[in-house]
């Protein structure tokens, strides 16, 4: 931990850590760490997370919310606030801004966030548009596999796809392991036509990227694009202006060269559709996980 990081934690602007200055409000449900020793070490090295400071850091963020945003309708549970601290490497001010953005995004896009629950998205799930592969990458990142060719625009609007992506992110981020390791996205653009791509215009692009970069507590470690047609250059041209350099550098365009993909994602963790040895792509398992999680999303809309 650098001196700068420690000073951030103890500075008055970050919120007082003194016991006699804590507000008298009852403490939300307690937190029990589920990380392995290796992940505790990784969180310390990559996220500046000190186990001995963890609950005091959470309390500091909680104090800031109560003081600066007393009317914000948000959970103040240890585990929930910890997601935002980890996503911003325990920088209190940046974690607070991420939390504010998280709720602002949800309020500002009702087409996506109203009635956001698995049971409302059975048709999208059944299409095979999205799944999470059963194996993580070598760094422990879950792999979110998106297949736009499975979407038929006449069946439902593009916002339904965004809804199911968001639900999946919410489910994934419940895992502390994912909070520390981050996720990988595998996007298969096989068969995506110009007419279908036209639905993903600048307005949608800006909204989605705004959520992924600044409005959701998740670390995107890589985006692997395969089977992209020539028109993808046009799609990427729409996306790129909204991408921060750090995220833009994590995009890898493989085309139909699966050997290139395998240098990043080993065959052993990929389904045979992507040259792997982990069996056929199965969307049913992840659909079942989401549909069994209905209770997790009640009251969040």
From TrEMBL:
It comes from the Eukaryota. Pfam families: CRAL_TRIO, CRAL_TRIO_N. Residues 1-31 are annotated as: Disordered. InterPro entries: CRAL-TRIO_dom, CRAL-TRIO_dom_sf, CRAL/TRIO_N_dom, CRAL/TRIO_N_dom_sf. GO terms for molecular function: phosphatidylinositol bisphosphate binding. Residues 117-282 form the CRAL-TRIO domain. Residues 8-19 have a biased composition (Polar residues). One of its GO terms (cellular component) is membrane. This is Alpha tocopherol transfer protein like.
